[in-house]
Automatic annotation (TrEMBL):
Residues 86-114 are annotated as: Disordered. It comes from Chloropsis hardwickii. Gene3D superfamilies: E3 ubiquitin-protein ligase. It comes from the Eukaryota. GO terms for cellular component: transcription elongation factor complex. GO terms for biological process: positive regulation of transcription elongation by RNA polymerase II; snRNA transcription by RNA polymerase II; transcription elongation by RNA polymerase II. This is ELL2 factor. Residues 1-87 form the RNA polymerase II elongation factor ELL N-terminal domain. Residues 86-101 have a biased composition (Polar residues). Signal peptide: none annotated.
Length: 114
């Protein structure tokens, strides 16, 4: 499995601090040569939270995840299903901001200002 894919699929489950992520990748058998590229991969695929020094997966990458990825345990797969269902469900508090506000009669009939 490519190193970048491992990082993406791990970050999909939860946020990680860099040392935690390195430890998890080492347990999974990541080669020593790949460890040096983690910073570059994180810049590409993760958002960094400066408050708690954690990394989370960029939103657009959730669409590329494979729920049957071989590195996942059955529990990981169940958790990912829950996470993905939350991300795909429309937010109940969101409002449609793409519509322009309606104009009153005097604004609608007034000539455009240069």
């Amino acid at each position: 499995r490519p190193y970048r894919d491992r990082v993406i699929h791990l970050l999909a489950l939860r946020t990680y601090k860099k040392p935690e992520l390195l430890a998890r990748l080492q347990r999974d058998g990541v080669m020593q040569k790949d460890k040096g590229t983690l910073g570059k991969i994180l810049q590409q695929v993760a958002n960094w939270n400066a408050r708690d020094n954690t990394f989370s997966l960029k939103e657009h990458l959730f669409q590329t995840l494979q729920p049957d990825w071989p590195g996942y345990t059955e529990i990981d797969r169940q958790n990912l299903t829950i996470i993905l269902s939350r991300k795909s469900a429309p937010s109940l508090n969101s409002t449609n901001t793409s519509q322009a506000p309606s104009l009153g009669p005097s604004e609608r009939d007034a000539p455009a200002r240069p």
